[in-house]
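Reading group handout, session on sequence-to-structure problems. Before we discuss, look at one worked example. The prompt was deliberately terse, the way you'd type it at a terminal:

> structure NADH:ubiquinone reductase (non-electrogenic)

The input record follows.
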Amino acid sequence: MNEKNIVIVGAGFGGVFAAKTLSKKLRSHKEYNIILVDKHSYFTYMTELHEVASQRVKPKHVQEDLEHLFYQDKNVKLLTTEVTNINKDKKTISTTQGDIPYEKLVLAVGGQSNDFGTPGVKEHGFELWSMEESLKIRNHIENIIGQGAAELDPDKREQMLTIAVVGSGFTGAELMGEFIEQRKVLAQTYKLDESEIKLVLLEASPSILNMLKDRKLADKAFKYMEDNGVDIRLNSRVTGVDENGVFFQDGSTLPTKSLIWTAGVKAKSFISNWGFKYGRGGRIEADDYMRATKEDGTPEKDIYVAGDTLSYVDEKTGPIPQTVEGAESAARAASANILADFGLGKAKTFSEAVKYHGFAVSIGSHYTVASLMGLNFSGFIASIAKHGINLFFYSQIRSAYSIFHYMLDEFFRTEDGRNPFKGSISRLGNVLWSTPLRLFLGIFWILVALGNAGDLNNFFWQNGLASFIEIVTGAGILLGLFTWPLGLLSILLTIVSGATHSFELTHWFIMLSSLAIMNGSGRGFGLDFYVVPLLQKIFGGLWYGKAKSTYNELEK
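And the output record:
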């Protein structure tokens, strides 16, 4: 059997979505190999990098190991390497691991920040378009604010305590929203008055969030940031950056040691010599079927484009935006047309494949503006909708593991109240407080089983299998071992008791207490602190395999 390689370059939104789609459709066709190539061994959730940069979440929250994502997709092979060239005549790609032949090629290498040649940005500023860049910002902000708090010279102190973001698009607005919340934490940590940490949003145009058609949403975002102490400077065109601050077109300056540039995106520069027709931002132009175009404008037969590498204008929806849904739609069209080339489906234009549901721009964890399915809204409901969009993406690539951990990291493991519920459901804040209740409930079930609970003995059981179940339930809850399932069992035992006798106030107390300890209280002075992570490691390894820093599965 002749094996044919479908090579996908880039494990971003477009590349991962294409790999998942093709893997599912070609599962029964063993002659096709899907090779996913990236210089990293993990997928980065790019639209959440601002949360890492502002210390809202840990870096691993936006990283998903490719082994985890594709361990169940046996027709997908992973290769950690860099692509250096494409030979279209021989139909091979050149990498640091050698040449790889392809039957079909999908280019989804992503983008990078575009500083438009502004002097000093790369040397003295920060950009936010990769995990490495977000970590630099994360470390820098913590360090510079600490230094500023110890600086006695008022001018130097103000310079160090000023954070400036250039660009008020989705990335800039979301990053500034995170800084609003991080400012409170930093002020408490370094014993500063919160107003000392100055947040400045710089925008060259007369308005913010200019990609929003509904200007009322942009106005709400503007007001929220302004009400929270952000100095929004419109019509402020940055002409240069040095070690002391920012220079503007009108000759004014802004002293700062923290300049984050989010004002533009372009394609990765290394694709510029691959012999395609390039559009705005150095992106590869594509035809209606997402096929890359040659320098003369004719389509390449076996090369497709998706994600931030792509330049395409749809007659109905306009230019493909640099968003998750834009990348998904292009990947969906490219995948359908690759399958059609193999005689396994119908060819689709981008217009036939595109699915735009809307957008949500989070200005921190507590406030969001959104336009979804034709409806515009803001505030708490919009924040929940933003999380729903992220979870929907993970459901599309069939990663229950990612959905579970996303929920934990965004809702139940958050610190400093940085979730839509302002921390009220974070188990980091309340798990220990429920530990005494857990101990009481465990002792209660043991006493009931032994007949030492006074009048309450009449409502439960003291012999046979039921008594044994009560002892197991009580002992497990008391030790904090498997607290969640035993809490559920405690509720079921109480329901059966109430149905057998009659529901009394005691039954309701036991049921609500059982529900309360299911918040993870077994990890507060309990065995679940050790057992649950161990089980996650064992069963996670069996299902998802072992994560590695690099991959080369072509040798298998």
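Points for discussion. First: The mean pLDDT is 93. Second: The CA atoms of residues 77 and 553 lie 6 Å apart.
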